Amino acid sequence: MPQIAITLAEGRTPAQIRDLMHEVHAAVLRTVNTRPEYIRVVVHEVPRTHWATGDVTLTEMDAARAQRSGVSADEHSDQGTAHRPVPTADEEQS
């Protein structure tokens, strides 16, 4: 019975999460010899204040990115930037 656990920073829509679960389920079904009803997919959403890379939280990264672009962190988040992947080391340094 495959069980897949996915951990994401919060900020995605329910539709995006549902699409992700569907795609993961389909991939497991294609690649593992099991029945569809045995596949379990669990998505854990973590508040952006509780996820850090290099001792900088995602919320702090969002605020720094918004400051560089001249947009408030709240507006930045409303524009969908919360869905961006964690910046690379080069992006974090700039």
Task: Describe the model.
This protein is of the alpha+beta class and 94 residues long. It starts with a strand and ends with a helix. The radius of gyration is 17 Å and the shape is elongated. The chain contains four helices and four strands, in the order βαβββααα. Strand 3 and strand 4 form a beta hairpin. The chain has a two-stranded parallel ribbon. The protein has two domains: 46 residues, Macrophage Migration Inhibitory Factor (2-Layer Sandwich), CATH 3.30.429.10; 43 residues, no CATH class.
Search tags:
94 residues, alpha+beta, Macrophage Migration Inhibitory Factor, 2 domains, two-stranded antiparallel ribbon, 4 helices, elongated
Q: pLDDT average, as an integer?
A: 84
Fraction of residues in helix: 40-55%
The CATH superfamily of the largest domain appears as Macrophage Migration Inhibitory Factor
Question: How many strands, which pairing sense, and closed or not: the largest β-sheet?
Answer: 2 strands, parallel
Order of helices and strands: EHEEEHHH
- What kind of assembly state do the chains in view correspond to? single chain
Cα(first) to Cα(last) distance is 45 Å
What's the helix count?
A: 4
Question: Biggest sheet: strands side by side, in what order?
Answer: 1-2
How many domains? The number is 2
Strand content: 15-25%
CATH top level assignment of the largest domain? Alpha Beta
Classification by helices and strands: alpha+beta
